[in-house]
Amino acid sequence: MLTSLCTLLCLSARAHAETASKESVVLAGGCFWGVQAVFQHTKGVISVTSGYAGGKASTAQYDTVSGGATGHAESVKVIYDPKQITLERLLDVYFTVAHNPTELNYQGPDHGTQYRSAIFYRSPEQKKTAQARIDTLMAEKKFSAPIVTTLEPLSTFYPAEDYHQNYATLHPYQPYILMHDAPKLVALEKTFPEFYVK
């Protein structure tokens, strides 16, 4: 009985430790294929899921979101280990590699509010961190135009359809991926070599 109790306590402690070392953030920056790919190659990231945020459950389908009137943005949910990478560093990757935060309601060839630059924060602390990164980048004049990234409270993240998951990895020679997303991985390795993983 004592052994069983010890085993249960150890398992509980281990589960708590694993949970405690995981954080998540939901980011939108254009087509979710490329944003997902960037964070899948970032050290400290545990998993990345493409999906939708900002709208209702009833409209969280690709064909509906593509209409641009649902309030949703194509997004990714990044689960990461804060012991390996901080939220600040993830946001640096987001702002400088994953997308262009100065493009209002579009990214490259994709236009509409569903492609907006947005951080869906889970807590006041996460919002504060995101705003601080934006303020720093603006003060340092890292971009030639203003950052238009919105900070929006996260209600619910809805995973996208299966065929959107890991799209860039599964379709590396698809023309859109080659033109718009593959260069992001090159930029990630060049800009953040210490956080790039193949």
Strand order of the largest sheet: 7-6-1-3-2-8
CATH class categorisation: Alpha Beta
Number of domains: 1
Mean pLDDT: 92
Chain-wise SSE layout:
Blueprint: H1 2-20, E1 23-29, H2 32-40, E2 45-53, H3 62-65, E3 73-80, H4 87-98, E4 106-107, E5 110-111, E6 117-121, H5 124-139, E7 150-153, E8 157-159, H6 167-170, H7 175-191
Parallel strand pairs: 6-7
Antiparallel strand pairs: 1-3, 1-6, 2-3, 2-8, 4-5
Task: Give structural attributes.
disordered N terminus; globular; Peptide Methionine Sulfoxide Reductase, Chain A; alpha+beta; single chain; 198 residues; 41% helix
Report on this structure.
The chain is α+β, with helices and mostly antiparallel strands and 198 residues long. The protein has one domain (21-195): Peptide Methionine Sulfoxide Reductase, Chain A (2-Layer Sandwich). It has 7 helices and 8 strands, in the order αβαβαβαβββαββαα. The chain has a 6-stranded mixed sheet with strand order 7-6-1-3-2-8. A two-stranded antiparallel ribbon has the order 4-5. Strand 4 (106-107) and strand 5 form a beta hairpin.
